[in-house]
Amino acid sequence: MCGIIGISNHPEASNLAYLGLYSMQHRGQESTGIIATNGKQYAIHKGMGLVADVFSEANIAQLPGTQAIGHVRYSTAGSSSMQNAQPFMINFSLGTLAIAHNGNLVNAEEIKRKLVNNGSIFQSSMDSEVIMHLIACSRESELIGRIADSLKQVKGAYSLLFMNEHQLIAARDPRAVRPLVLGKLKDSYIIASETCAFDLLEAEFIREIEPGEILAISEKGIKSYFPFPAKKMAHCIFEYIYFARPDSIMFGETVYDVRIRLGRQLAREHPVEADMVIPIPDSGTPAALGYAKETGIPWELGLIRNHYVGRTFIEPQSSIRHFGVKIKLNAIKSVIKDKRVVVIDDSIVRGTTSRKIIKMIRAAGAREVHVRISSPPTDFPCYYGIDTPSRNELIASSHTVEDIRKYITADSLGYISSNGLKQAIGGQDCFCDACFTGNYPITFPAIEQANQPALF
Ligand code: AMP
Question: What average pLDDT does the structure give for the chain?
Answer without folding.
Answer: 94
